[in-house]
């Protein structure tokens, strides 16, 4: 049974052709929201993804492959949303990349790319979404930060800087929209078994001679007391809640969903 809670609303989820973004897009579609997907991937597979979302949930779907490191492409994507869907009501800034190296070894071009995609892209989508939201006096901006927006880990300076910045940007945006029907919050996941994290698991398994399951357990044991991965579906449920009337006064909050990581 598809809910109609968000029927008539349009959600743009960046980085939504797989992983967390796709999980959130599915959860919003299940509540009746039209979905604009964004991300890289095989064109045929993405078209199939659009069709399956539309068929399963009875919503309109769109896709724009904007490179989130390029402001001109982001602007074109937001224009596409306005032309085809009338604007973005729910903006989920999820696109992100990672690189691990100590500061003195960190390639400057990787730093620039991580800041651009993980932080600056959210500024561009938000500034372009706000006029439509203000005209309707309703909007939900959800920034996918990370536990690394709240605490740090060695070797991840660019990612930690970007995610801390995204939490700060969330607070500033929430204050600027505090007297409107627009809210802005951040979700800060711990380990989620996305393709990005699976690569880290694979690398660890190979390096330490572990099975994939043992490598997953070792990864979780270091940081996440629950010993379980957070799922895209759980993050999607949180996004749906933040879009609800019950979350109307939740503004500028960084919600960690991390199996106890930050509580330590």
Find the CATH topology of the largest domain.
Rossmann fold
- What class do helices, strands and sheet pairing give? alpha/beta
* SSE arrangement, N to C: EHEHEHEHEHEHHHE
Sheet with most strands: strand arrangement: 3-2-1-4-5-6-7
Q: Got a strand count? A: 7
What is the fourth-level CATH superfamily of the largest domain?
Answer: NAD(P)-binding Rossmann-like Domain
CATH architecture type of the largest domain: 3-Layer(aba) Sandwich
Domain tally: 2
> How many helices?
8
Mind telling me the C-alpha Rg? Answer: 18 Å
Show unreliable segments.
none
Which shape, going by the Cα principal axes? globular
Helical amount: 40-55%
What is the CATH class designation of the largest domain? Answer: Alpha Beta
Mean pLDDT: 97
Walk me through the structure.
Its EC number is 1.1.1.30. This is 3-hydroxybutyrate dehydrogenase. The protein has 264 residues and is of the alpha/beta class. It folds into 2 domains: 10-190 and 230-256, NAD(P)-binding Rossmann-like Domain (Rossmann fold), CATH 3.40.50.720; 191-229, no CATH class. The protein has helices at 19-30, 43-57, 71-85, 108-136, 157-176, 195-208, 212-223, 232-243; strands spanning 10-13, 34-38, 61-64, 90-93, 139-144, 182-189, 254-257. Strands 3-2-1-4-5-6-7 form a 7-stranded parallel β-sheet, with helices on both faces. α1 (19-30) packs across α8, α3 (71-85) runs parallel beside α4 and α4 runs parallel beside α5 (157-176). The termini are far apart.
Could you outline the blueprint of secondary structure elements for this entry?
Layout: E1 10-13, H1 19-30, E2 34-38, H2 43-57, E3 61-64, H3 71-85, E4 90-93, H4 108-136, E5 139-144, H5 157-176, E6 182-189, H6 195-208, H7 212-223, H8 232-243, E7 254-257
Parallel strand pairs: 1-2, 1-4, 2-3, 4-5, 5-6, 6-7
Helix pairs in contact: 1-8, 3-4, 4-5, 6-7
């Amino acid at each position: 049974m598809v809910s109609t809670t968000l029927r008539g609303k349009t959600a743009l989820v960046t980085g939504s052709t797989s992983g967390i973004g796709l999980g959130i897009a599915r959860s919003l579609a299940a509540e009746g929201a039209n979905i604009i997907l964004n991300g890289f991937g095989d064109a045929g597979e993405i078209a199939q993804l659009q069709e399956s979302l539309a068929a399963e949930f009875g919503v309109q779907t769109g896709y724009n492959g904007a490179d989130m490191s390029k402001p001109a492409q982001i602007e074109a994507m937001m224009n596409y949303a306005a032309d085809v869907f009338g604007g973005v009501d729910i903006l989920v800034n999820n696109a992100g990349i990672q690189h691990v190296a100590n500061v003195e070894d960190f390639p400057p071009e990787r730093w620039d790319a991580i800041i651009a995609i993980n932080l600056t892209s959210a500024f561009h989508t938000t500034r372009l979404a706000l006029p439509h939201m203000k005209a309707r006096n309703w909007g939900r901006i959800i920034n996918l930060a990370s536990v690394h927006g709240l605490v740090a880990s060695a070797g991840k300076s660019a990612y930690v800087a970007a995610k801390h910045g995204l939490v700060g940007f969330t607070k500033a945006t929430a204050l600027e929209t505090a007297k409107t029907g627009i809210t802005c919050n951040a979700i800060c996941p711990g380990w989620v078994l996305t393709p990005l994290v699976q690569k880290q698991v694979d690398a660890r398994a190979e390096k330490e001679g572990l099975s994939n399951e043992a490598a997953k357990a070792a990864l979780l044991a270091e940081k996440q007391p629950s010993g379980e991965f957070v799922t895209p579906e759980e993050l999607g449920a949180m996004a749906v809640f933040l879009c609800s009337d019950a979350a109307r006064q939740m503004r500028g909050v960084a919600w960690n969903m991390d199996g106890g990581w930050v509580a330590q």
